[in-house]
Amino acid sequence: MAIFKPEVKASGSFTSFEGICEVGIVGFEDKSDNFDWADLLLEITVKQKDSDYDRTTTIKGSFEKENGKIVGGACLKRLYQFFDAIGCEAGINVDGGWEDANGKEIKNISKYLNDNFLKANSDYAPPMDFIGYFYKEQPKTPGGKVYSRMWNKFYKNTEMNKVALKKDVNWMKSKGYIKEMKEGDIPNNSNGNTLSGSGLANL
After folding, report:
1. Is the pLDDT of residue 60 over 90?
2. Is 45 exposed, middle or buried (0-12, 13-18, 19+ CB in 10 A)?
3. How does strand 19-30 pair with strand 40-48?
4. How far apart are CA 42 and CA 51, in angstroms?
5. pLDDT value at residue 198
6. 23 close to 47: Cβ distance less than 8 angstroms
7. Model's pTM, two decimal places?
8. Taking the mean position of all CA atoms in its chain, how far away is CA 136?
9. CA dihedral in degrees (170, 152, 150, 142; nearest 10)?
10. Do residues 105 and 99 touch, judged by C-beta distance below 8 A?
11. Is the pLDDT of residue 163 over 80?
12. Where do the H-state alpha helices sit in 62-187?
């Protein structure tokens, strides 16, 4: 009888943590003031089902303005899609300030979201209320580091939404907005070691 040894996967191997995964939100942090170019940078920390590691994604960008007043911006659409998913009725006024649904000023959006929209229990096990799409992103330069990323669009965890998420991701891929590595096509760094990152960001 032969000795059995389980296959050891390389660090850059694809796992069950790519693709559509169930997630629970464990934290929010507003980092808008940390970057001159960002009118909005909201970092969302999640835990994937069956994973021991936290992942983060961001909703970020600049506002479109006229005469100093906000008139639009793609990042606002992403923000409100996310707020709709979590049931948050807060938002940003034309002057760039945060308000709740009654027009009351929100001085600290991170605290507001963490106080009102987290369901993590004492065992740090948030309910898997949402689904998101995780993938290994093609490096911007040949031989560059490969990062695991989460597309910054959340859906409530239903079978119908899994179909909708897959459709949206396929469209994003077809337009080149999601540039995903394929299995067996992971580049090496200059030392010949396959790399895999754990940080996440948005597109």
Report:
1. yes
2. middle
3. antiparallel
4. 23
5. 34
6. yes
7. 0.76
8. 13
9. 80
10. yes
11. yes
12. 74-86, 109-116, 159-174
